[in-house]
Amino acid sequence: MRVLVVHNRYRVRAGEDSVVDEEMALLSGAGHEVIMHAPDSAHLERAGPLAQAAALARFVAASPVSAALEALLARRPGVVYAHNLFPGISPSLYARCRALGIPVVQVIHNSRLACPSAMLYRDGRYCEDCVGRSFAWPAVRHGCYHGSRPLSLVVAAAMRTQLDAARRDAALFMPVSELKAEVLKRSGIPPARIVIKLNPVADTPRRASPRGRSAVFLGRLVHEKGVLNILAAWAGDHRLGPIQFVGDGPCRDEVAAAARSDPRILPLGWLPRENIGAILAEARFLLCPSFTSEPSGMTVIEAWSVGLPAIVTGRPGASGLFGRGTGIEVPPGDPAALADAAAALWSDDAAWERMSAASRSRYERDHSPGAVLAVLERAFRQVGAR
What domains can be seen in the chain, in order of their start residue? Predict the structure, then answer.
């Protein structure tokens, strides 16, 4: 089968970019011919504000697909496998493919079609104010996209354009979690056109063991990821061992200040992706105390692949992804509960072993390359891909 993958890569490499690359390798390895159209937002940013404004206007207007994409469609792929379109791939893609008799399978990595910020998060809390509305006016009023009302208006209009076009002409939607599926349904997508596709992570021979002594946080150092709550949990609690912060972001100064006064705080910055598996395999547990609805929980899935338990916050979208004995769930914004959970995972080897086994089992069943490939191929057959 010839599969055309379309994806607008992010300015800063994101988890979605990694998923796209992983799935392209999966499909190619299974004997499918994979071709790709992948404009890059970094190029658009370097082109300057006028070029950016023009790109946004083309997206909102659903202008015709680019000549480069048209040339790939002329090769008659059996299916178009769409990821992120915004802002460089016109939503007219759906109608063009339908006119050519090519089914489009649209992956939903985040909630941007319903929420301009994509995170279902505002002012320190989970937020669904725009879900199910004909237009995301609350996001405009609050400036949810980059703190700007004008930008929020443009993005809300762009997402309305894409949602209407996809609802009319896409063959199938593949959200990466149960929460994303529910948001789609409330946005008017019929359940019969929704198939949940969990994200894959490449397998590794590495395995975590109860000898691991360090906790790990992996991701952007931002408030909404719970970084400051981790620091508050560690402050003065001598039950807790070392914690490695792998990542960078606006909270880097707070992490660095904590590290200067507490040798257990270990800021490592961003590390090459090939180092992450070793970091996780040598850890005691992963911390993922986010305030937001995680789009796909890639760091947790990577931890599961080595049998590493996780501490996560109980929030919409988290329990369905992270539960079932694979770690400990704590309330969001509760440093004391976070500290108690961390202390429990350090002190109870038997509980750690049970959670480790459950984590690895969950990975093998839902997120291993073979499991995800089977879901993809079944979905492509469902839409009549040739």
Answer: 2-200+368-382 (3.40.50.2000), 214-367 (3.40.50.2000)
